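Sample intake sheet
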Amino acid sequence: MPELHQTTAAKTFGATSTTDEVLDGVSLSGKRVLVTGVSAGLGVETARALAAHGAEVVGAARDLTKAKAATAGVRAAANGGGFELLELDLASLDSVRVCADALVDDGKPFDLVICNAGVMATPFGKTRDGFETQFGTNHLGHFVLVNRIASLMKPGSRLVNLSSAGHRYSDVDLDDPNFERTPYDPWAAYGRSKTANILFAVEFDRRHKGDGVRATAVHPGGIQTELSRHIGEEGIKQLVERINAATRAAGEPDFKFKTIPQGAATSVWAGAVAAADAVGGRYCEDCHVAEIEPNPAKRAGVKPYALNPETAEALWAKSEEMVGERF
């Protein structure tokens, strides 16, 4: 499949496009958006860009004090839209359910839900509910949140799950999701959770597209944000060296970090600019729909297992079993 670079009004977007470039000339007036993880980095920039183009943005974060300080610029940039904060701890299903119930009780529909929050390469740990930290936070927390508020997603609305090129580190393991029998590896766990983010979008899209609701997954690119706090500077340096060694062997250019506005661009592109049929059930990177790339050494593209519809359906069933809820 050829690489698809979507264009809007004769504009082509790519790896270096920023949120403001992608949304140039786009009015989001009257649109309501939920963005998780608005206490730092990509979440803050995503919320700012959307509010600046007229959207009513609801930002969710675990630490509201930190989020309030981090999003002062979002409120200042709001252009006819607005911004409000909600408490959400994705590592606690009680917190997720309280947050979702409050949104449903409020009854206001959403045009776009961006599951941006996440953790990366954490030491082994468990969420409040006993799930492995990365799978529990990155996937299961969002799985419950999104399914509980699905009734608020009106026809024409979209779900955008933030995944990562890190999905290539591993497929999901539905037999041992909590590393009870498998030796724990922080990058394997991260890979599982990021593959799960894609598979969740695939199955959500399949279930809801008949009602005009679409879902997609995006890779923002490599950005230096708080996400890398568990790795440290030396760890990041070693990671980049490993990535470059692999990509040079595959004949690809060296890895380059993106700025935060470049990193958030694919989220807003997939959520508010790209054609729904182009991105629905797919994986996007650098403001285009990614090619399927079976070679594990290649950084770009999406691994075939991450779009497998049978695995997506099986993950949904396993996730329901784990959280004790049917959707």
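Comment: DSSP finds twelve helices and eleven strands in the chain. The domain at 4-323 is CATH 3.40.50.720 (Rossmann fold).
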